[in-house]
């Protein structure tokens, strides 16, 4: 299920992977997530499938028309669905699947035949109105052409979900596009597609399922040819290819599409590469050139441990941040990042890279070394760390789980020794994190809505003589903009109440020690009195409800639930607001 951050949702989220942790300095436009994760950007990968009536025709007239069609015998052949005689539904006759741009076009009548004829079938459930489906369409057709040119056993197909509601229900399609892989005609247990959304990635994902996911290596020439073919190659050296560890290795190879895999049990290859026991070796054309992952003889090969090892060692010791590398930087699951901000157009700045690289090896797997070019399109990274391009060269350290940021002493040089020392001091807890804050505006308290920043937040929010209601927002957040007029009206209404303060704080430019802000807008009420009490506002965002909340001292009014005939449970109160699965 996706948490909406689209135009009609209730909250905007900063980039964060679905499984936990965060991607703090990833651009929102780069924040693409796998199925099942939280939607991170204005352009998420999926459109949730509509539930319930969407129009008058869908909700009211359509069932009546279908009933009339069934009663008149126009629906299906003879007494079928909708028949007043109660006869069981007849299965629709099988038809030949249509084809469009090399992709099979399937329906309820043609899916069964397609599954029988094609032992490896990838099916996309799409909606004609879904923008993400339209974006995928040309890549999907290109992937079909690639596989057809290779005479591969895999075929691609698509189903119009809204036009085929029975199939959408059968395969639990809740969002578009949804892709499912059917193997050997098995209709009941398709595999969820979790691969890329560009043509070569789709084709490679299928190749590794219909063919071997790792190339069998018999001779040294085979190994050398494989290693020469790619920058990163992973070879599993196993003395017994029937061992369960081999199945683990091949399972990982199916999905690690950015790496090429080989497999061997030949003693001469063990000897050639200096191995005496089962080992997975990552060969690379950069840095150390090779990294070994010995297989524990007692515990066996753990796929998670191997995956983390390969992610860590397939990356360069120093990675330049850009749109192509950003996702890999965060997927490496290394929580500590050290960023060097330089201007790559300046010779003096580029000369600092040698010392930065020299410091990196001892921290492999513990600290990810990243270079950010301030002359490139990386303004969002500078903004996240509260930097300006003129401050380069400089270092910043961040733990992406806690989002705590650290800076070296002002004017510190960037050398191998200073970089090493800075890393060790931060990891050892010898440096305090810094927090961003804008300067306090001279007129911060002159408007009905008071302007707070990090530097004056504590003084205002926890003033024991005031009841303070604060909106934490992001300048780019659609929902923040939508509620802005109501917030202004609220401030105007209570401007003469000396004990009430209505304020706002840009949470993208100001960080607080009291609590983190993970979504926008967030509304919090700080009642007068001792104890630093904080109340989260969870009501609807309109002037009337805001006013009732303030007048009751920070409590939402309880409303009697409306009685609905035939309803098993009362509906939620009108002021309850929860995330909705819609865009």
From TrEMBL:
GO BP: protein folding; response to endoplasmic reticulum stress
Organism field: Odocoileus virginianus
Biased composition (Acidic residues): 91-100
Location(s) in or outside the cell: Endoplasmic reticulum lumen
NCBIfam families found in the cross-reference section: ER_PDI_fam
PANTHER family per the UniProt record, alphabetical: PROTEIN DISULFIDE ISOMERASE, PROTEIN DISULFIDE-ISOMERASE A2
Family: Belongs to the protein disulfide isomerase family.
Enzyme class, first EC level, given as a word: isomerase
Known EC number: 5.3.4.1
GO MF: protein disulfide isomerase activity; steroid binding
Protein name: protein disulfide-isomerase
